[in-house]
Amino acid sequence: MIDTLTYQQRRAELARRVGHGLVLLPGHAESPCNYRDNCYPFRQDSTLLYFSGLAVPDIALLLDCDSGQTTLLAADPHPDDIVWTGPVPSRAEQAARAGIEHHAPLSSLQALVEQAQAQGRTVHRLPVARTGEATGASAALLHAVVALRAVKTADEVAQIEQALHTTRDMHLLALRQARVGVAEQAVVGAMEGLVAARGLRMAYPVIFSSRGEILHNHHHDQTLQAGDLVVNDSGAESPLGYASDITRTIPASGRFTPLQADLYRVVLKAQQEAIALLKPGVPYRQVHEHACTVLVDGMIGLGFMRGNAAEAVERGAHAIVFPCGTGHMLGLDVHDMEGLGEQHVGYGEGNTRSTLPGHKYLRMARAVQPGFVLTVEPGLYFNPWLAAQWQAQGLHTDLIDYGAMQRHMAQFRSGGIRIEDDVLVTEHGARVLGPHIARTVEEVEAACAGAE
Known about the structure:
By secondary structure, the protein is of the alpha+beta class. The chain is about 40% helix and about 15% strand. This is Xaa-Pro aminopeptidase.
């Protein structure tokens, strides 16, 4: 767990970094599905959660950077509410849990902000994470929050690893259940049930699909067929809201075909070499480009591409099979802090986003630091729509064998391979977090057969 002193220290450091004025951190309200009293499961704004640990709706923090005083703004429960909710903590009790000495009714927030502005004081706000609205956001506050949340403490790493233990069990369950003739939804339901039975929640909607070339495919409407490869991208959230994010690729037949095994080993090699490159000061863009080069080199060896691997990556030709990025930050958000702006979180000063295919979707380019937790997730995706489009345009015909691509897609119904792990950057290198989850061809096939 994370103790009260930690939240107090985080707020003190935030005030020090921002320097002056007031910091306003609003929490989330309940979000109705279709009418007021039928709501989606509540999830607190991650930044407010980081600085308070309070996972309740309709609260806000007001931090005075000049005096160091923090005020919790919340409504005391109405006596009538007890009929529907049972007893809930008072405003004073919530403030005490977070180590906050001052509290006031949430209804007074607007007056407090207007009073500060009338006195000529700056009120610092963040972009609105749920909408991406950045009008009026404070650069000083944004940079301070990103800098603090990016570096994970030992307690935060422990939370991520706690989530990963449940995620390991989810993936083992899927490896055993994903078989020819089984509905994708049945396996998804089993994984979600395992998580729910432990009183936890998913960190993001499950991606479990034999159409893995569709990168964020949240449909589970296929029945598995012989020769299918199933991309299982799923992760549990810890009790304090920290995410895990793991992908494994499952042969529905229980064993990979020889070509599938060769392709899988290419992806695994790219992932292992990318992880080995991670150490403080290394730009993640460099890690991505190396992973791409390994993938292309493997595709050349298997006859799908030709020419020089480094040149193919430089020209963006690798996007025919790997159009996305190699990873992203992980923490209280599965794509940590991206709601505050991917440019600030994954790029920072001096890093610009490429417009080339295979590079433009890279979420993380900046140099990594000790305490960063990142996903490393290279993949190969055989997308018939993308291949047809590129071939019709005559793109990179000197580097891509479109005939080989088409033959493979006709045989295996398109699909994809992705291998993803969560990695902590240490003082001298990197460490894969959590318990080991079957990763090699041999380990995956053994797990499919029922081995641990």
